[in-house]
Amino acid sequence: xxxxxxxxxxxxxxxxxxxxxxxxxxxxxxxxxxxxxxxxxxxxxxxxxxxxxxxxxxxxxxxxxxxxxxxxxxxxxxxxxxxxxxxxxxxxxxxxxxxxxxxxxxxxxxxxxxxxxxxxxxxxxxxxxxxxx
Length: 133
Description:
The protein is mainly β. It has one helix and eight strands. The strands form two sheets. Strands 1-3-6-5 form a four-stranded antiparallel sheet, with no helix packed on it. Strands 2-8-7-4 form a four-stranded mixed sheet, with no helix packed on it. The chain is elongated and about 60 Å long.
């Protein structure tokens, strides 16, 4: 019985041993540069031929230099004074209620990109050409 107890103790101790090699630490070369994150806040309903501000919160884990590019699904939309925290938007004239998708692409210096959209409904300006009968 004593020999059986010693044998099982030896087997147990050898089974718990090594797997060798991995230390559980991550070396800097194992980490991957992450793409930036984007949050957009601002108007969702505007009048044609109006100007409004979109606020952005951009974050990059590695604090890389960021490039910001805006585009629109509607021709004639103008983006000005674009920074990492905002963009001024000017809407063109529209004849009917129009849904416009504004898209921001943010690229970090490691060439990782993130795309985020913001949908705005544009109402036509009230016409001053009212016919009276």
